[in-house]
């Protein structure tokens, strides 16, 4: 089947001016008796017209929308869009910190819809319709309907979830709706993709994943900050290094490991503080690393069970973060670039202690006998995270790498010999309890621009490489792997 375009069908339904019912087939199974369809019932009340949508399996409705006016001074089908978004965020994977139900504000959605044309809004609506339909199949329908959703609907619309970088309409909605609603949307996307990848591992004949990164990433300029965000299921990232085999585990442990690792999502925010300084003969653009926050969240629902607590220990950890920032490629207005740190700055030191122990005794003679012993203790302290600054053309590159504190080897290249050795490596205080990472590096770069660029709006490239590693601790079954995602986008820099 082709991709579904529900928005275009709703805007131009094959309905007459009379009361009527139209149906759009969403998918058909191999057996013609099983199908999912979308219905639109039009009702005229006096001079006003209303429409009600419904999702049906065969001829049994599993969801009915609120009634929406077809002619209104507000955006077309605003109540329907608000209803879909509200039902998505209410059922989205949450954290322990959500104590009250999340609410989508209709006035926010209204302002958002007013600033986008019907054609540009079409892709966003189709995406949220797919997410809403997933929750219907998961919570309100029989298992065979859910399987039909994956095989016939999601299989033909997977590239709608490959939003890297995100389309402007999705980016604008995330910025307008706020972080809480944004997390609910992107975690729903991640949860759907996690289920898809689990299904791919047990069923043949399903289409492979798109070549682009799955999930959402976008950049923005706000309040003196350049911000790059990324939300992507970890199991969809490219595996760059592995050691050991999952199939070496007992069957139950292997199944639990695969399921747990599949339901994890990378949530990364890279923030750089910037400023523009205009001098008499040149312009300075300054950027400083403000905050890098890397978290791997569980895509699931917190039930507080012992099994859930055990699965929390099976989590990827950040092992390398590489950030680059600079003007657009081929920019001829750059006169020079300066980094703030010297490569000679050391990030380790050696401490040496000497201790003198002595004792005296007289024995048979009156002359005391003195016995002494000198012991020396050496202690070295090495930072787990080391910064490396570099330049590529007009781009500054900031590289934070996690190292093994015993051997000094990068964790992305680490190869353990035993599970116990692996266990000793990850107990260093390089992460918080949630195994997330927060870096406030303070690394800085300054570009000097020609004076002629004053008053213009320039494009600046911002990107990153994020590496995540999984280290399985066990006496008999050590396992290690590293996955990587590459991000790239542009931000506006007003030279004023």
Give the tags.
about 500 residues; alpha+beta; eight-stranded mixed sheet; six-stranded antiparallel sheet; 10 helices; 21 strands; globular
What does it look like?
This protein starts with 5 loop residues before the first helix and ends with a strand. Helix content is 25%, strand content 40%. It is an alpha+beta fold and 496 residues long. Strands 6, 7, 8, 10, 11, 13, 18 and 19 form an eight-stranded mixed sheet that branches. Strand 20 (457-472) and strand 21 (479-494) form a beta hairpin. The longest helix is centred in the middle third of the chain and has 24 residues, at 179-202. The protein has helices at 6-11, 78-91, 106-114, 118-139, 143-153, 168-177, 179-202, 251-262, 306-312, 419-425; strands spanning 20-28, 35-45, 48-57, 60-64, 68-69, 162-163, 215-222, 225-233, 238-243, 264-278, 282-298, 317-327, 334-339, 348-361, 369-382, 385-392, 395-402, 437-439, 444-450, 457-472, 479-494. Helix 2 (78-91) crosses helix 4 (118-139), helix 4 runs antiparallel to helix 5 and helix 6 crosses helix 7. It is globular and about 115 Å long. It has ten helices and 21 strands.
């Amino acid at each position: 089947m082709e991709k579904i375009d529900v928005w275009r069908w709703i805007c131009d339904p094959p309905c007459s001016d009379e009361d009527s019912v139209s149906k759009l087939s969403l998918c058909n199974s191999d057996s013609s008796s099983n199908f999912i369809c979308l219905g639109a019932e039009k009702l005229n009340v006096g001079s006003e017209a209303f429409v009600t949508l419904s999702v049906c399996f065969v001829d049994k409705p599993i969801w009915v929308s609120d009634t929406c006016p077809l002619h209104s001074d507000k955006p077309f089908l605003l109540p329907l869009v608000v209803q879909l978004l509200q039902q998505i965020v209410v059922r989205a994977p949450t954290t322990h910190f959500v104590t009250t139900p999340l609410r989508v504000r209709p006035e926010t959605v209204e302002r958002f819809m007013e600033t986008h044309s019907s054609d540009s809004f079409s892709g966003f609506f189709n995406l949220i319709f797919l997410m809403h339909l997933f929750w219907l199949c998961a919570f309100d329908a029989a298992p065979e309907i859910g399987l039909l959703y994956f095989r016939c609907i999601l299989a033909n619309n997977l590239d709608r979830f490959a939003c890297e970088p995100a389309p402007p309409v999705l980016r604008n909605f995330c910025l307008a709706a706020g972080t809480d609603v944004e997390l609910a949307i992107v975690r729903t996307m991640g949860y759907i993709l996690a289920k898809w990848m689990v299904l791919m591992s047990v069923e043949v004949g399903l289409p492979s994943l798109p070549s682009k990164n799955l999930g959402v990433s976008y950049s923005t300029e706000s309040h003196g900050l350049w911000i790059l965000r990324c939300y992507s299921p970890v199991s969809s990232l490219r595996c760059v290094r592995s050691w050991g085999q999952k199939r070496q585990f007992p069957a139950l442990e292997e199944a639990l490991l695969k399921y747990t690792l599949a339901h994890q999502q990378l949530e990364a925010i890279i923030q750089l503080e910037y400023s523009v300084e205009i001098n008499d003969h040149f312009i300075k653009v300054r950027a400083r690393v403000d905050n890098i926050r890397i978290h791997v969240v569980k895509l699931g629902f917190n039930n507080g069970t012992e099994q859930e607590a055990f699965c929390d220990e099976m989590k990827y950890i950040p092992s390398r973060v590489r950030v680059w920032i600079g003007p657009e490629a081929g920019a001829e207005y750059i006169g020079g670039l300066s980094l703030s740190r010297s490569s000679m700055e050391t990030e380790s030191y050696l401490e040496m202690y000497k201790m003198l122990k002595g004792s005296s005794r007289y024995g048979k003679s009156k002359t005391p006998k003195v016995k002494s012993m000198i012991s020396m203790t050496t202690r070295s302290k090495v930072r787990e995270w080391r910064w490396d600054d570099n330049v590529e053309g007009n781009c500054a590159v900031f590289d934070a790498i996690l190292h093994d504190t015993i051997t000094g080897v990068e964790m992305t290249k680490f190869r353990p010999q035993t599970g116990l050795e692996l266990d000793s490596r990850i107990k260093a205080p390089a992460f918080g309890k949630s195994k997330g990472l927060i870096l406030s590096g303070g690394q800085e770069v300054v570009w000097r621009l020609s004076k002629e660029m004053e008053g213009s709006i320039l494009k600046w490239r911002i990107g990153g490489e994020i590496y995540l590693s999984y280290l399985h601790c066990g006496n008999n079954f050590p396992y290690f792997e590293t996955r990587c995602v590459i991000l790239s986008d542009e931000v506006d820099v007003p030279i004023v």
